[in-house]
Amino acid sequence: xxxxxxxxxxxxxxxxxxxxxxxxxxxxxxxxxxxxxxxxxxxxxxxxxxxxxxxxxxxxxxxxxxxxxxxxxxxxxxxxxxxxxxxxxxxxxxxxxxxxxxxxxxxxxxxxxxxxxxxxxxxxxxxxxxxxxxxxxxxxxxxxxxxxxxxxxxxxxxxxxxxxxxxxxxxxxxxxxxxxxxxxxxxxxxxxxxxxxxxxxxxxxxxxxxxxxxxxxxxxxxxxxxxxxxxxxxxxxxxxxxxxxxxxxxxxxxx
Length: 255
Known about the structure:
Strand order of the largest sheet: 3-2-1-4-7-5-8
Distance between the termini: 17 Å
Number of domains: 1
């Protein structure tokens, strides 16, 4: 089956080793399955030459429908994804991690669920039944993820999303524009804010298991530093909600 269109947002920070090859992988996949597509790469103040590699890729591959948004300084993953989503023109909108540890091929199932169900959003989860990991996650990552989920429940109240941080999420375009227009968190906890607002607006969220490939490179996540940032981000989400920052009548969408 060939779909009509899609926008794919790829936030990048220190991805010089893989970004050119992974953009081409995404392009080839989309070319086979969509009549029209756009790839939006947002380089988030990368100090390793990632922006220059993306610019060179655009020059070398004019056949690829690629837009580059370049931040002069690092603003955070949430800010990068937000910029890409708000610039997206097609429907639906997917955002994925630049390392493709979740393969772009997983999109087949996500498109099917978005089109054939009543869902507004389809998110990946490493903890959902059926998820496959090429290599077990390090103990400190598991501990951090479990701890973050517990904090979400305690601070946000009955938060049912056990894996908010998985970098593969597909949105109806109208819903994406609504949600990303409201988020305030600029770094890793933006996913939690996004899903908190989605729940508050009563958007319908489907959760799918995915394959997680092994990535042998050093991670951009700093466990202790980012955990502290996430704690304060959750408190900020709670405060925003109490202050009415997220209040708005839900937008109903048609498939």
